[in-house]
Structure formats: structure tokens, C-alpha cells
Specification:
This protein is an alpha/beta fold. It has helices at residues 18-27, 50-60, 83-99, 114-118, 120-143, 165-175, 186-196, 200-207, and strands at 5-7, 32-36, 43-44, 47-48, 66-70, 104-108, 112-113, 147-151, 160-161, 180-185, 211-215. The strands form three sheets. Strands 1-2-5-6-8-10-11 form a seven-stranded parallel β-sheet. It has a two-stranded antiparallel sheet with strand order 3-4. It has a two-stranded antiparallel sheet with strand order 7-9.
């Protein structure tokens, strides 16, 4: 079933403001809101902050609204130096998503430096670590009835490399797990395709069939 939603906002970590946002979305016929866990204090120090989770559940549950979650922006499985930390944070994202009955959890495909990308053997080893981790996280998400929606990015600096949508599609196809899908971010894909001088439409055509979640514009 197709659903149309908007991203929520928790300025200064204030979860309670979501109530008014939900009310206004209902008034215009919107049935889904994406909960920005990264803007809250629900996850701190790789642990779930139970008092904040309680506030989140009290705010969201029994509102007759569908939820997705955008996980922590820091998660990056191509950051090998902090790999285990990223893994634990994603687990907490999955657990919180389940607690609020969110169907999909958006998390970013990793990005790395141009230096590492240009060392093909090293880059491929990092991709393999990420792929193996996604397979494991797919099983973890399955236990919690959550779909991971892997989102494409663009490089944040000129020194960084963000994989293009076609490369992400190839990796997700290799993983081939029912709980690992894509989040196709249209504007991110446009920025990255333009920066890399490749055809934007060709790129998103590769990722679109794997995408159960779409960000139309968030740049």
C-alpha cells in the first residue's frame, strides 16, 4: 500500500512538538510521519534513554498515524575505525523503531574518503564489511519487524566519496535480504550524479526497483 508522509521535527530535542505536527498532517489528509530520532535524546551513548523513549511512545502511539524513522545521521559502515560503534547505534535505531511500530527505518549507505576509494582493494574490503554487516542487521531488523531503507547520499566535502545510486543498488542486490531495501533520495541522487558527471535518470533507475521508501526532496 502506498503512503504519503512528511518528515517530523523535534527542535532542541523536544519530542512533544510532534503532537501538533501530527494533528496538522491529519487535517490535510497525510497518513504517515517520519520520526527524526537523530534530533532527539532517545539514543545516547549507544544506549536507549528509557525516559525519553517513554515520552516518544506516549506522544506517538494511539494517534492513528503511520510511522517511519530516520535513524542517527552518524551511522556510517564505511567508517571502519568506528565500525562497532556504528553497528550498536543501528541496533538501537531498530529497537526504537519497533517500539513505536514504525515500518521502515532509514539509514545512510556509507561514505568514505577519495583516498580510500581510489585504493580499489581497500575500498572493496570496506564494502564487503558493510555488506556483511547489512546482512546481519537485516536478520536483526527481521526479529523486530522493521525494514531497513538504505539511503543514498552525496559527498559532504570535496575530500569524500559517496557511492552513486547504481552502486548502492548493486550492493543491495548482492545482499538480497527481505528486510534490506532502499530509500531513494531524489535530490541527493541529483547532487551526486551532477557532481560525478553521470546521468541522473540512469542512476535512479537502478535504485528505484529496490526502493520501498522515497525522499522526494530534503536538500
Amino acid at each position: 500500500m502506498n503512503k504519503i508522509g512528511f518528515s517530523g521535527s523535534c527542535p532542541n530535542g523536544d519530542i512533544s512538538v510532534l503532537s501538533d505536527q501530527i494533528r496538522r498532517l491529519k487535517e490535510v489528509g497525510i497518513d504517515t510521519i517520519e520520526v527524526p530520532i537523530y534530533e532527539t535524546d532517545v539514543i545516547c551513548g549507544k544506549k536507549i534513554n528509557q525516559p525519553e523513549l517513554k515520552i516518544l511512545k506516549k506522544t506517538l502511539l494511539d494517534q492513528n498515524m503511520n510511522y517511519t524513522v530516520h535513524g542517527e545521521l552518524s551511522v556510517n559502515f564505511l567508517d571502519i575505525d568506528n565500525f562497532d560503534n556504528h553497528k550498536e547505534i543501528l541496533k538501537r535505531d531498530i529497537e526504537v523503531s519497533s517500539e513505536i511500530r514504525a515500518t521502515h527505518l532509514v539509514t545512510h549507505f556509507g561514505q568514505t574518503t577519495n583516498e580510500i576509494f581510489e585504493n580499489k582493494a581497500l575500498y572493496e574490503s570496506h564494502l564487503q564489511m558493510q555488506k556483511d554487516c547489512y546482512s546481519e542487521m537485516g536478520e536483526y531488523a527481521k526479529k523486530f519487524n522493521v525494514i531497513l531503507a538504505i539511503e543514498n547520499l552525496f559527498p559532504f566535502t570535496l575530500k569524500h566519496y559517496a557511492p552513486l545510486p547504481s552502486e548502492i543498488a548493486n550492493q543491495i542486490n548482492l545482499i538480497n535480504h527481505p528486510n534490506i531495501k532502499c530509500c531513494l533520495d531524489i535530490s541527493h541522487g541529483y547532487i551526486n550524479s551532477t557532481f560525478r558527471n553521470v546521468n541522473f535518470i540512469d542512476e535512479i533507475k537502478k535504485m528505484a526497483p529496490l526502493s520501498e521508501h522515497i525522499h522526494m526532496h530534503d536538500s
